[in-house]
Here is the input.
Amino acid sequence: MKVEQIYTGCLAHAAYYIESNGEAAVFDPLREVQPYIDRANKDKAKIKYVFETHFHADFVSGHLDLKAKTGAQIVFGPTAKPGYDAIVAEDGQVFEVGNYKVKVLHTPGHTMESTTYLLIDENDKEHGIITGDTLFIGDVGRPDLAQHVVADLTEEKLASHLFYSLRNKIMPLADDLIVYPNHGAGSACGKMMSKETTDTLGNQKKTNYALRADMTEEEFVKELLTGLTTPPGYFPKNVLMNIKGYESLDNVMEKAQTPLSPEEFEMTANATRALVLDTRNPEDFAKGFIPNSINIGLNGSFAMWIGEMIKDINQEILLVTYADKEEEAMIRLSRVGYDHTIGYLKGGFDAWKAAGKEIDTTARVSAQEFADKYTKDTLVIDVRKKSEFDSERVVDAVNIPLNSIYSHLSEIPKDKPFVLHCAGGYRSMIASSILKQLGYENFSDVEGGFKEIALTKVPKTDYVCPTTLL
Here is the structure.
């Protein structure tokens, strides 16, 4: 049986495609559906089903557009209540795709409708499981997302459901089955998933902490909930879009693909509440940018930081990109539900500069320059995650993770110089652009971040757990 994994690294997302005897099915597609249609056309196959493992939080699925363009039927697992026409399958129900079969295994826990799809080949041999966010390689789905949509679904309740789903539905399956999860390392839907994106179920039973055979329910819940970070703020909004429905991506793109001259761009920015979003690399942004724009580069965890730093999913956006990157930026915004791009700067920042428009800059220093000037009185603000900061840090640095910067502005002085850094320079430039937008001037960020600082003679410390006094 051939299962094609279609992996999108910037979202750490895996969709799946199967085809047999002229019929095809797609599992958990992304918002832009043409690649799936092209894949089926290559096989001269008709997409019969779009299987959804659950209502996704970290991206807007392409199931509705795929149904509209191909006539495929959308399938959810038991208890799902979509706001549009779809099949809500029963536990154990079997769907035929050519000579293949897809069996529904209801596995609540990540969400209540979460479902695993058991793939059965043309010889009636069980081949693998498409697990969605129920089971990852090295991890399982976090159980604390649904309560942001349905308050009664506490993380403890869902963790308990997941414990029994894994033990009653997944672990009894054969060891040679291939596990096909929805995400790999880098996704916020788990806490410690592997860089590997497939594995055998037997190996996961041996190595995945959540599948230990001797684990009690109480131990499982405790281990699962320990170390969970706050989920990105846009997650509940994406869930609701996936439940209720959304505007066709074609319509979203038609409105977004409006080229604006520097004059038109400036007039539109002044006449609307649009946010100017510059998606260039940090090093180029630092040298010159449109005043009050913020920088979230495409060459990084773009979608995640868009969702973290732009709180209003309905925010109007004006784009500044490199040449020929406009469409990519628009699609990647829409993947996470930001459907209100109203235009882009034609010719990019070079056109703005050539038109003699106002330009701002932000200061950067090399790690060596930072080392040369560092003293114990230097205020260093580290915008990495707490776990990164705890692992190793500059002595006396202050940790303000990027996703919490707006709630910690009172700790960032306007009357005293300071230095920002992250791990590699991407997040610190996001922070720099936000602080510049808010009127901060007397600061710089470290090019190359802590990765470069660690190679210098700046005093650093490893985190040491405090000794418990008995």
About this structure: The chain has three domains: 4-237, 247-354, 363-462.
